């Protein structure tokens, strides 16, 4: 088992990137989307092994919708999606320095300037979909091995439970 990510961890990451590059924005966006969207890391990144990658599961940029109070995107497939229907994920704005909407908009702006025609939502500065290893290498720069890919989902679930959300909503 890995430790859950916390709001303090998120603050640490934001403070460590005062003027973020594209890849830093990507890393922060994946972290915040994973935490506030309750994602498994494999839903946001490509598998490390090429033969395990499935482009049908890659989140598409065209399915992203931004509003003043939230953003949404279509998750085309995931581990719990037995009927391969996909799900729309909605992440709301927060009114503090850990606002996933502001961070996501900064990433989208950088991404759209660099890769306006690429269909994938999450792209590294080189134009490739980030892999699990790409993300974990960056995470290791800030946290010990007790924080890993599942820490995003576990941390988000713990956070929402502490906010009083019912279990069925968190699930």
Describe the structure.
The chain is mainly alpha-helical. The protein is 40% helix and 8% strand. The protein has 7 helices and 3 strands, in the order H-H-H-E-E-E-H-H-H-H. The chain has helices at residues 7-15, 22-36, 41-44, 100-114, 132-140, 150-162, 167-170; strands at 65-66, 70-75, 87-92. The chain has a 3-stranded antiparallel sheet, covered by helices on one side. Strand 1 and strand 2 form a beta hairpin. Helix 2 crosses helix 4 and helix 2 (22-36) crosses helix 6. The longest helix is centred in the N-terminal third of the chain and has 15 residues, at 22-36.
* β-strand amount: 5-15%
Major sheet: 3 strands, antiparallel
Q: In angstroms, what is the radius of gyration?
A: 15 Å
The number of helices is 7
Compute the average pLDDT: 93
SSE order in H/E notation?
A: HHHEEEHHHH
Q: What's the helical proportion of residues? A: 40-55%
The end-to-end distance, rounded to whole angstroms, is 19 Å
> Largest sheet, order of strands side by side?
1-2-3
Q: Which class of secondary structure composition applies to the elements?
A: mainly alpha
Low-confidence stretches: none
Q: Count the E strands.
A: 3
